[in-house]
Specification:
The chain has helices spanning 24-32, 37-51, 56-73, 76-92, 96-112, 116-133, 137-154, 157-173, 177-193, 197-214, 217-234, 237-253, 257-274, 277-293, 297-314, 317-333, 337-350, 358-374, 378-413, 415-426, 429-480, 483-492, 513-517, 522-542, 568-592, 626-636, 647-653, and strands at 498-510, 546-551, 554-559, 600-614, 620-624, 643-646, 657-667, 670-681. By secondary structure, the chain is an alpha+beta fold. β7 and β8 (670-681) form a beta hairpin.
Length: 684
C-alpha cells in the first residue's frame, strides 16, 4: 500500500505568510499597484511561487520573464530568487539539468551578496531536494547538512528544522529508520519551541510513517492522531487531510478495516474542499479497499469508480494507477474477472515506464494474472505472474541494498565511539592478531552459513510456489464443486452420482426479465444480474445451502446436499426470507434514486433428488429429478416479492414459519397442488 508521504520540502517562500494563503488574482492586483520596479519584481516572485503549485507551464514562462526583467534592472536579489523558484518548476517537471543550471546561477549570486540565508535555501530546498527527487539520497543528505550551519548563523531555527526534516526523509528512503526518527525528533522540538502548529503536524505525520515502518504501530497511530488534533485546533485543513490519509493507510495495513474507511472518507472530503483531486482520488481508493474488506462490494465499486473519474481529471500517473488498480481489484474480488482486466491493464500501463511504485506495480500484475487465469487466458496469466515475481524480487534486492547502506550510515553516526575502540585495540597488538584470525574464521563460517541459507531459502521459495499453485488449483475446484465432491474427485479421479431421499430445492426468477432487459445495455444487464446473484451467493453460504447454477435470469440452489441434513427445508426457507428482505432494501434504494430494479419470484419444493457431476470437460455439479421440476413450477406460480412453497415443504417448516394457505393451484403437467406464501419466522 502506497501512502501519501509529505516529501522533501522546498521552503522557497520569501513572504512572511505562506504563499498558499494568497490568491493569484490578488497578487496580480498588487503587481499592478507596485510603486517601484523592484516591488513589482518581488510581487511577481510571489505569483511565481503560487503558480508552481498550479500550472508548471505558466510558472516556467513567468520565471523566465522575472529573470529577464531582474537582469535588465540589475536587481541581483530578485534574479537569484526567481532562478531558485524556476529551478523548483524544472524539478517538478523532471527537467533536472535545467534545474541544476538555475541553482548554479542562484548560488553564485547569493554568495556574491553574502546572503547566507538564501544560500542555505539553495543547498536545502534546491540541490538537496533535486537530488532527493532523483533518488540520490546520499548526495541530497550532504546538501541538507551543508545548509544547517548557514541557517544557524542567521538564527533561523525554522529553516534548521526544515533541513532536519529533509535529512530524516533521506534516511527514510534508505531504510535507516532509527536515524530518520532521531532527526524528526530534533525538528519537532524546534517546531514546538516556536509554536509552529503546521510544522509540528507535518513532522508528526512523518514520524507516524517512520514508526509504522519500524513496526511500532501503536506509537504510529498515536503520532497520526496527535497530528489530527493539532491540525483541527489550528484550522490546518491540508495537514489534517494528510494525517487522516496516512492513518487510513496504517489501518488498512493492520487490517483495521472499519476505522480505515472512516479515516479515508474524512481525508477525501477534506481534499474535495481544497480542490486537491490527487488526494481525493487516492483516499477514495483507500475507502473502496476498506469497503471491499467489509464485503460491501457493490458500494466499494461505486466509490472506486468515483475515484477513477477524479483521478482521470487529476492527470497524475500515480493516482490514476491507484484508482484503476483499486477498481480492477474490487471487480476481481467479486469474480467479475473480465470486467477487471481493462482497469488493471490501464493501471499498469500508466506507470510502466516508472520504477517509483514497484510494489503497487507488482500487485497490479498479480491481480491481472488471476483475472487472466480465471478467464482462460493461461499464457497471459503465466506472463503476468512472472512479471509480478520479477518486480517483487527487484524490490527485495533494492531493500537489501538499502539495509547495507543503513549499516554504513549507522557506522558514520557512531564514528567517535568506533574510533576510541580501535585505538584501544591498536594498543593490544597480540589480541588484535588473535581477533583478526577469529574474524577470518567467523567470516568463513558466515559465508558457508550464507550459502546454506541461500539454498534453504530457494528450497523454501520453491515449496511455497508449489503450495500456492496447489492452493490456487484447489480454490478453483472448490469454486466449481462442493467440498465433498471436490475431495472425492481429487482422491479417486471421479465422483459418483448420489441419490438423496429428501432435499429442498429453491428456484428464483425475475419478473418480466425480457421487458426489463430492453431498457438496459447488454453490459448494464449483465452487471445487474451479477450484482443480484452475488448477493444470493453470499446469503445461501450463510445458511449452508448449496448453489447449483444460474440459468439465464433464474437462480437454482438446494439444501440437504451434497451432505444430508435434517434442517434442509428450514435452511432454504430462511435463506429465501433473507433474500427477499435484501431485495426489498435494494428496491427502496433504487426507487429513491429513480433507477431500474429487479423483482424476484421464489419457489421452493422438498423431495428426492439425484446429484452429481456432468461431463468430463468444464464439468459442473448438477441435480435432477421431479423435485427440481416441481420447484420450478412453485416459482412460476409465485408472485414478485413472495416466497411460494409446496405442501411438502410446508410440512417441514410449519412449526417455525407462519404461512398463508393459497389453496390447491393448477400446475402444468401435474395435479392441483397445495401452495403457501411464507409470511415470517415464528419467534418464541
Amino acid at each position: 500500500m502506497i501512502r501519501s508521504l509529505l516529501v522533501f520540502s522546498f521552503l522557497y517562500v520569501f513572504l512572511h505568510a505562506p504563499a498558499q494563503t494568497h490568491k493569484i488574482d490578488s497578487v496580480n492586483r498588487l503587481i499592478e499597484k507596485a510603486s517601484t520596479d523592484t516591488a513589482k519584481i518581488n510581487r511577481m516572485i510571489a505569483k511565481l511561487d503560487l503558480l508552481t503549485d498550479v500550472n508548471l507551464d505558466s510558472a516556467a514562462a513567468l520565471g523566465n520573464q522575472v529573470i529577464r526583467e531582474s537582469v535588465s534592472l540589475k536587481y541581483r536579489q530578485g534574479e537569484a530568487k526567481a532562478r531558485m523558484l524556476t529551478a523548483t518548476v524544472h524539478c517538478y517537471a523532471g527537467a533536472y539539468e535545467l534545474a541544476r543550471q538555475q541553482l548554479n546561477a542562484a548560488e553564485v549570486i547569493f554568495r556574491s551578496l553574502n546572503d547566507a540565508l538564501n544560500l542555505g535555501r539553495v543547498y536545502n530546498g534546491g540541490y538537496g531536494v533535486m537530488y532527493g527527487m532523483q533518488g540520490q539520497y546520499d548526495s541530497a543528505k550532504l546538501y541538507f547538512e551543508k545548509s544547517i550551519p548557514l541557517f544557524e548563523g542567521t538564527g533561523d531555527e525554522m529553516m534548521v528544522a526544515n533541513a532536519y526534516q529533509n535529512i530524516a526523509i533521506s534516511y527514510q528512503q534508505t531504510s535507516n529508520l532509527k536515524m530518520a526518527l532521531s532527526y524528526l525528533q530534533q525538528a519537532l522540538r524546534i517546531m514546538e519551541k516556536n509554536n509552529d502548529a503546521s510544522g509540528q503536524a507535518t513532522i508528526l505525520i512523518n514520524m507516524g510513517n517512520t514508526l509504522e515502518n519500524i513496526g511500532d504501530t501503536l506509537r504510529s497511530e498515536e503520532s497520526f492522531l496527535k497530528a489530527i488534533d493539532l491540525s483541527k485546533n489550528a484550522g490546518l485543513k491540508r495537514e489534517e487531510m494528510y494525517a487522516y490519509s496516512n492513518l487510513s493507510t496504517l489501518y488498512l495495513e493492520t487490517k483495521n478495516i472499519y476505522p480505515a474507511y472512516d479515516a479515508a472518507s474524512i481525508a477525501a472530503k477534506l481534499a474535495q474542499k481544497m480542490g486537491d483531486k490527487g488526494m481525493q482520488s487516492a483516499n477514495l481508493s483507500k475507502a473502496a479497499s476498506a469497503l471491499a474488506g467489509q464485503n460491501k462490494y457493490h458500494l466499494a465499486e461505486q466509490v472506486a469508480r468515483q475515484g477513477v473519474s477524479i483521478a482521470d481529471a487529476s492527470n497524475q500517473p500515480f493516482n490514476i494507477n491507484q484508482a484503476y488498480g483499486t477498481l480492477g481489484t474490487v471487480l476481481s474480488q467479486q469474480g467479475r474477472y473480465g470486467y477487471a482486466i481493462p482497469y488493471l491493464e490501464k493501471a499498469i500501463d500508466v506507470i510502466k515506464n516508472s520504477d517509483l511504485y514497484s510494489v503497487a506495480f507488482a500487485e497490479n500484475y498479480k491481480a491481472l494474472a488471476l483475472c487472466y487465469e480465471q478467464t482462460g487466458r493461461y499464457e497471459k496469466a503465466l506472463q503476468a505472474y512472472k512479471r509480478s515475481d520479477a518486480i517483487y524480487d527487484s524490490a527485495r534486492n533494492k531493500e537489501n541494498v538499502r539495509k547495507t547502506t543503513e549499516l554504513s550510515l549507522n557506522y558514520e553516526f557512531d564514528k567517535k565511539q568506533q574510533v576510541a575502540r580501535l585505538e584501544r585495540q591498536q594498543q593490544e597488538a597480540a589480541a588484535k592478531c588473535r581477533q583478526q584470525a577469529l574474524t577470518a574464521g567467523l567470516l568463513c563460517t558466515l559465508l558457508l552459513a550464507g550459502i546454506a541459507l541461500f539454498a534453504y531459502r530457494n528450497k523454501q521459495k520453491a515449496n511455497r510456489i508449489i503450495h500456492e499453485e496447489k492452493k490456487r488449483s484447489d480454490d478453483l475446484l472448490l469454486n466449481i464443486l462442493p467440498h465433498e465432491v471436490a475431495d472425492e474427485l481429487k482422491n479417486k479421479g471421479y465422483s459418483e452420482a448420489k441419490g438423496f431421499e429428501q432435499a429442498t430445492v429453491l428456484f428464483a426468477d425475475i419478473k418480466e426479465f425480457t421487458k426489463m432487459g430492453e431498457q438496459l445495455s447488454p453490459k448494464e444487464l449483465v452487471f445487474e444480474l451479477d450484482y443480484y446473484f452475488r448477493l444470493f451467493d453470499t446469503i445461501i453460504e450463510e445458511f449452508t445451502v448449496e448453489k447449483i447454477k444460474t440459468i439465464g435470469d433464474a437462480y437454482l440452489c438446494a439444501g440437504g446436499l451434497p451432505v444430508s441434513t435434517a434442517t434442509h427445508a428450514l435452511d432454504v426457507v430462511r435463506a429465501a426470507v433473507n433474500m427477499q428482505q435484501q431485495l426489498l432494501k435494494i428496491r427502496q434504494e433504487k426507487m429513491a434514486a429513480d433507477q431500474i430494479f429487479f423483482e424476484f419470484r421464489i419457489g421452493i419444493h422438498t423431495g428426492p433428488v439425484v446429484a452429481g457431476i456432468v461431463g468430463i470437460k468444464k464439468f459442473a455439479y448438477d441435480i435432477w429429478g421431479d423435485t427440481v421440476n416441481t420447484a420450478a413450477r412453485m416459482e412460476q406460480c409465485s408472485e414478485p416479492g413472495k416466497i411460494n412453497i409446496s405442501g411438502e415443504t410446508y410440512n417441514h417448516v410449519r412449526e417455525q414459519f407462519a404461512c398463508t394457505y393459497r389453496g390447491k393451484i393448477p400446475v402444468k403437467h401435474k395435479l392441483d397442488m397445495d401452495m403457501y406464501f411464507v409470511d415470517e419466522e415464528i419467534t418464541s
